[in-house]
């Protein structure tokens, strides 16, 4: 049995240590907001936060998580930055099919947590690991700037 | 090909929905269990169902049945807008729901079956959904007028409430449904003048997006059914091959593996979770008899196409004596254009969830063709079609991939061997290597110029696979010989040539099966036509925009206006730094006129950076301008991705690419700014928009690369070292 804390809740899971966190989250714990896209850390659809840092859960073994808290798309809206990013995503009508957007939002939130007012180049750097097949990149850029301004307006550090 | 033909399903027509009215409510509106479909009766015992699209219950809840699948296009929002406009309900008062398989009720007027594709949805819905809403409103007003004993003409409706202004009386739709359901349904009701629109033409928030930003949206891959196993599959890497051997004991020894299902051409391992299934499949180490295609590769594929392209094709258009006028021209062009096989690679990997029981089957799947999905499961399981329930799911990208049911057929063949519900998921590798691909096209073009630089004649021979012949044989023209899609955008162009010939040579590859891909015929032909027009402009030493203007019919003011707007907004003609260039492309596709200007920089190393894309379009009436812009922006990125990076290649009979590292997607750092300008033309004919951007990308890009470098690229993809080739 392995113990893992996801979105503040502790789970005991009967899986092998090499099992990627993605499948533990989706198929064992049952949170389906985190998506499978490629399985080789190329597309970013599976992005979650481990101790607040974005990781590709499709290649992250559950055995390496240990006591670090895991946050998924289902709970990111409970953080001030995550909530702003989700709001900006809706206001800019970023989403088309939406399948990659959990990962996009997790990456964008992680970016704004450390870089509250990113430049286009910083956005490109942080978001280039997330593929969107619908081609929503133009609006993702807009929405991140919008979320950054919303953060600045209320004096949020990040 | 034969295997696919024999498995091709017969399109069911006239199948009554009956008790099979199953669909998925948008998760944001559904209090139900995630993934569980909500059942809505086709005829509402307690409520009002004036047609196939509207259900209103006694509480006044308005459910709108969506004839088209939602896979990101925003069609559910736009379709709801069309109905709500006439039904006089707010967009916040409606719940969209996927239509069940029912060809009699939901056949697309343009496609001729219950399918979503070909940028046809809005064109098909524009009239029928507004009329459906108007019928509903008329009956509800009549029911209220009857109750009040007043003239229906003295009543009005707004936000699901009927009002008799003179007396101040009001009744909500919920209170009227029983009476309205008893009234005869009128066949001819007036719909609004466009000047009376309150909703159409505005950009309300999309209905499907809130659950897509907080992780609560349930796609097919997220479906959870009690007792369900999760499986993954491996099909023979070479088309036509068979499973030779595998290690079942090793697969079953993997923790969490439940079952191994081996069929003649595919093996599936089912477990408690995807990791067990994947590990089990790897342990099974399937060995294959690869069959007759195991030796072939791209060299042979292209040689065969080249040979076929030298034969005469079926003639789609023949005006004037093309051979003579080109022969007598002062300057001549005789060129070959090649477009590769392409995979669809939607972000949501292929998946189907099935529960096959002795008395029927449930299928949870995202599909562009629900009637075909139902039929193939019935056929593969031997169950009566009426016992197969299709629960349509929202889709994480389709792009034509889910216009076929090969993966659903495969899932049914596997699922009938287990008693429990099973979710079968393809890995990305399986998706890339077992897709049904956009055909490889090999086009020969000849054209000539006279002494004044005017086009004398234009000859275009398309050679490639016919998707239509396999997917919808009745769609073939000229006794089944001409695939109208293969020449769409070639036969009809925006231009008028003094002499023009278009031919089609059908040539099927043995190694892959082909399928529709975003932009279908026009994506292929507009690239070829607009590239060659650019070549001719250069040969005539004329500005590409001026050259195009001169070729437009004098009375085509609509196309001229679109071209002029793109020219103005893009800064066409203004100076650019060395190594930069602008390219233009003009198209009439899916009923929409569009002009596109791409601006690129080509580095000394031959790397292409797309800086900016400017689009002007005229699609006639606009339902939702923000959706139009989003679709064009996304379509441009989709088209640029293919034009720059994508090709599926075959060696030793198998697809060489496997995942996003070698079938790569444009990323945010490579994405240009994209400006979309819509011409106001509310009385024009309505055009489709889902694929127009994809069509424009490659030709605008190729022409910009030529402007920047003087190099004409006649083979897609561009960024595979072509600019470094001598």
UniProtKB/TrEMBL annotation, chain A:
Molecular function per GO: 2 iron, 2 sulfur cluster binding; metal ion binding; oxidoreductase activity
Domain 2Fe-2S ferredoxin-type stretches: 1-76
InterPro entries hit by this protein: 2Fe-2S-bd, 2Fe-2S-bd_dom_sf, 2Fe-2S_ferredoxin-like_sf, 2Fe-2S_ferredoxin-type, 2Fe2S_fd_BS, Beta-grasp_dom_sf, Diverse_Oxidoreductases
Superkingdom of this protein's organism: Bacteria
Record's keyword terms, sorted: 2Fe-2S, Iron, Iron-sulfur, Metal-binding, Oxidoreductase
Official protein name in the record: (2Fe-2S)-binding protein
Automatic annotation (TrEMBL), chain B:
InterPro entries in the cross-refs: Ald_Oxase/Xan_DH_a/b (IPR000674), AldOxase/xan_DH_MoCoBD1 (IPR008274), AldOxase/xan_DH_MoCoBD2 (IPR046867), AldOxase/xan_DH_Mopterin-bd_sf (IPR037165), N-heterocyclic_Hydroxylase (IPR052516), OxRdtase_Mopterin-bd_su_IorB (IPR012368), TAT_signal (IPR006311)
Domain Aldehyde oxidase/xanthine dehydrogenase a/b hammerhead residues, every copy: 214-292
Xref: Pfam families: MoCoBD_1, MoCoBD_2
Gene3D superfamilies: Aldehyde oxidase/xanthine dehydrogenase, a/b hammerhead (3.90.1170.50), Aldehyde oxidase/xanthine dehydrogenase, molybdopterin binding domain (3.30.365.10)
Domain of life: Bacteria
GO molecular function, one term: oxidoreductase activity
Protein name per the record: Xanthine dehydrogenase family protein molybdopterin-binding subunit
Naturally occurring in which organism (per UniProt): Lichenicola cladoniae
Lineage: Bacteria, Pseudomonadati, Pseudomonadota, Alphaproteobacteria, Acetobacterales
